[in-house]
Fold each of these.
Amino acid sequence: MDAPPRPALPSPAPSLPPPGPPPGHDTGDVLQQIMAITDQSLEEAQARKHALNCHRMKPALFSVLCEIKEKTVLNIRGVQEEGLPDAQLMRLDNMLLAEGVSRPEKRARGGPAVAAGTATPGGCPNDNSLEHSDYRAKLSQIRQIYHSELEKYEQACREFTTHVTNLLQEQSRTRPVLPEEMERMVGVIHSKFRAIQMQLKQSTCEAVMTLRSRFLDARRKRRNFSKHATEVLNEYFYSHLSNPYPSEEAKQELARKGGITVSQVSNWFGNKRIRYKKNMGKFQEEATIYTANTEGNTTEAGGPRSQASCPSTPGSGSSGHFPLTSAGDALISLQTLASLQPAPGRGGVWSQVSVRA
DNA sequence: GCTCATGATTGACG
DNA sequence: CGTCAATCATGAGC
């Protein structure tokens, strides 16, 4: 600042005439001088910059540069305004929100009320929660990575923006930099970082989808029950053949014993009733096995009524359409029908079938 | 690879 | 809401 004015340095560059010299120098010369500045030492450059700023041609050059700038700014603006239609970004945002990734889970920005209701609109099926803990752990891992990356990008964007802004401000002392130009530059930076963020969001979405298909949709994958579970279910089924509709409690007990869920028990009984009714012949053997079993050890808490205890004499009386293994069962079924309450809800169907025997 | 068995899903019904 | 009936999708045996 207060350095003694020493305008005339050794000036090693012969092509560089002293600041004040004769006219006739065109803008090309001045530009060359500007270019030459970069080759000089800092101190030297400062001096030259100062000299240039004092050059009498400088205002003219500056205005020319401004003019050119104006044109290019206009040109660029036309191209720039397009921007990216944020439709895709919005889609990604929505999806991340729906999957619960966008919520940082530690600090509820919008307030706790949000988290309560909007569990997952298109998202997690909330039943069988067997592997959900695992799923949630993985999901929260993804969420963490997502947020830390997002934070990193935002930080980098901020830093880069201030850096560029400072640079432009510095440069504005030697060349025309319009405020709107700086704004535009900031806009460009932001849009670049937005593109990166979009990629991050995209890959996060992909990760979530993969996770979902691996875990939640895996429930669609059929796994045969263990032999033990099947035995438990069959024992109950055949020992309650006249009324194979386990109560909620019984279902829970069966689920516990078989190591499966209550809804799986319900599914199993639903399937079993239908399939048994459709093709009883096929189940005769199974029926005798389990009825024999349950005769031996009556483990069922519900109190097996031994209604199906008769040895099977296939095809004797039953015209084959009913869930009875023998004519004897018909009697027993009728007896039990008399003593049993009709099955919950619409047990009538099954009872009707029995009675028809 | 085909076939059958079987758990899960879906839509209708009461 | 529980059940039935049809159907889908996969596992298992051959």
Amino acid sequence: MADSNERYESMVRKLKEHGYKLTHQRLALARVLSVSEGHPDVETIFLRLQDSFPTMSLATVYRNVMLFKSFGEVLELGFPNGRNRFDGNKPFPHPHVICIRCQKIIDPDVGSLKDMTEEVADITGFVILTHRLDFFGICSDCMTEKV
Amino acid sequence: MADSNERYESMVRKLKEHGYKLTHQRLALARVLSVSEGHPDVETIFLRLQDSFPTMSLATVYRNVMLFKSFGEVLELGFPNGRNRFDGNKPFPHPHVICIRCQKIIDPDVGSLKDMTEEVADITGFVILTHRLDFFGICSDCMTEKV
DNA sequence: GTTTTAAATAATAATCATTCTCATTTACAT
DNA sequence: ATGTAAATGAGAATGATTATTATTTAAAAC
Ligand SMILES: [Mn+2]
Ligand SMILES: [Mn+2]
Ligand SMILES: [Zn+2]
Ligand SMILES: [Zn+2]
């Protein structure tokens, strides 16, 4: 994964560059996102911030995660059911492998989709801006689970 | 695209095989799904059924689209914002190209992901059951649009 | 350091696609 | 034709996300 200090500094830099205030809540969120490894959802992020900010609002987490996303500092993985998940380590499109039992999401080390993206653009006439590739299955932990 | 009569017959066969009643609503829905080409959402399907079934409930559309999905007769494309879309022609995982302006969704003719799926299974230890690949961009119609 | 003020936050209401509930209706086996 | 479990229609409930607004605060100006 990316160096978390680098990621943190990058997020703070973006706040400054765009003229946003460096609130305690934002800096703490940047820290949580930069060290996050398991693609947390807002609830998980919210709970991690509870220690340092017992009065923090869930809306503040939503607002600022989306703010960091608008800077390209976090990747949002939207899901139609269940909560959206966030990747603060690799804030660019990349494949994910999702366990349908325990909801674990990991980043596999596989080749990119550059070739297929170009092929799709050629065939369809679309200007392709981004993509999303998810593999759904059952992780080895869940496979060996009894019951 | 697939032959719509074949698709329709396949859907009706699945209803019979699984012992579900052949209600007028289900048969009409099977017809709409089998001829659908633009990945309609439930609202669109609902409106198309209004002509023949003015009293039909939206819940019935949801219920039975999910029933056909459980038979593997329709592919659901879930979206975290906006409505889910359905493909009754190719009810198996395949790539999609989505226009972020007009929400058009098309099926591009590209090679499969079989190789990458195997690679991911090897690397992660997951048992991969399905996948989802979306390319997001702007279609040529929207690109040439003024304003 | 104090003051000023636009931006940010906390709390909570609103949204909206989807699912659930239940009274009524219907497919279909007998 | 009748009986019965399944299906439908109508509308309430759900739940993640977004919007609203009064209060607080970061940081610029003095
Ligand atoms: Mn990731
Ligand atoms: Mn399709
Ligand atoms: Zn698992
Ligand atoms: Zn378009």
Amino acid sequence: MKVKEVAELVGISVRTLHHYDEIGLLKPDEVTEAGYRIYSERNLEDLQQILFFRELGFPLKKIKEIIHDPTFDREEALKLHKRMLLKKKRQLDQLIETIDKTLLNMKGEIEMADQEKFKGFDFSHNPYEEEARKRWGDQAVDEANAKLESKSKEERQELGEQFNTIYRKLAEVRHEAPDSAIAQERIHEWYVFLNAFGNYSKEAFKNLGQMYVDDERFTKNIDQFGEGLAAFMRDAMAVYADRMD
Amino acid sequence: MKVKEVAELVGISVRTLHHYDEIGLLKPDEVTEAGYRIYSERNLEDLQQILFFRELGFPLKKIKEIIHDPTFDREEALKLHKRMLLKKKRQLDQLIETIDKTLLNMKGEIEMADQEKFKGFDFSHNPYEEEARKRWGDQAVDEANAKLESKSKEERQELGEQFNTIYRKLAEVRHEAPDSAIAQERIHEWYVFLNAFGNYSKEAFKNLGQMYVDDERFTKNIDQFGEGLAAFMRDAMAVYADRMD
DNA sequence: TGTTGACTCTCACGTTACGTGGTAGCTTAT
DNA sequence: ATAAGCTACCACGTAACGTGAGAGTCAACA
């Protein structure tokens, strides 16, 4: 298929396809003598993936990394997409509820706190990266930020659902061997999930696992999904990291 | 409230607030001696509006026009938002369905046409803008609409009554055959009534009927006069149009 | 009362993801 | 073989902020 054909099929511009080619995000499988881009069936599947990610607000650079990752599992990714879309749907519900309340508020029928007026708006920048950064940053910080702790607790509650799902899936298999297929499969999911937001090198990923055990705040949080989950994750993550290269 | 406070409350960056000030989208009601921005309660309400529009993908320029328009009706805007969000939700459902199908497709359980793979992606040129443009922008686009829009509130109310009367009369006969004499009679009334606003060609009239079914806003509005009324009207209008020449 | 430390301000250049011409070569139908 | 419609490749433009840099402000503690 030629550019325009593809563009019309998926509802994007020709320029966008050019752009994706330029930055190496989606290179057509074939190029004619005259330099015309010819897209294959595979290309279309990749494009579908790309648009899914884009729809969720991922930067193209990250999308490129993700789909070019040899360990990239299309099925896992699709399932993750689905969960995120479901989350987005819930967020929309939030917004809709906020509108309804605002309308009532305008008629003076109810009172509204400032916070409430903005419920559901936290699309903008994902909290995961923040959390990850907080973990590493907090390492050096002393007790003086007892405030920060309570704050991060609130934040964690906000993004809890996402994590909970994966934690629960991990907890299910926590009595398996850390290097078992099922354990590694779940850890892979975890890895994909985390990597979607911040780049974890092999070492960083391993260290993260170690910290789950070393930092009791995390241990406590994680182990509430199942006794010994933190330790299991550390081990499984270490195995996963070692097999990474 | 100072910048950071506001930023944290609504989940945006300080820079964003600065930016909105720069481009005159949201200027704080108060500025201290030292140049500190102080946001009022009103400012927060405006910000809420702005974020609603932004969430739906409106360019800031357009948002500025909209909320600075003296004829801007906050309540109406909120209701429009709600409809748009509901539409977006349905689009998400589409995407989710597409994912489910893709997953099944990967397992070879079903076949998928290329088009299907991209269902739900047509955010590209969102249909909202079309509606919004009709509502707030290019009045010149639709003269009939412009007429309607220029009517006073009372006039509109009266008009509403008239619509209701006709809808009710149509609903009475909605179980008759669309090409029956009584149905065609009522549709004729409808046609005459509509032509008071603008000239509907044969095709336009037919399309209008189709839209009653395709656009859920109309469907909902119409069907509240009787289940299936929208569909009945579409059919009857098609018959009427075909007999027109 | 002086000194932090957290906030705030204003430049001003950087970035992402394309849009928007413009010019020139290619392909297909008449 | 000529026009209509695609295609390509620059290359600059734009929107909505991000990201320091350098400097002033404010409340709290020593």
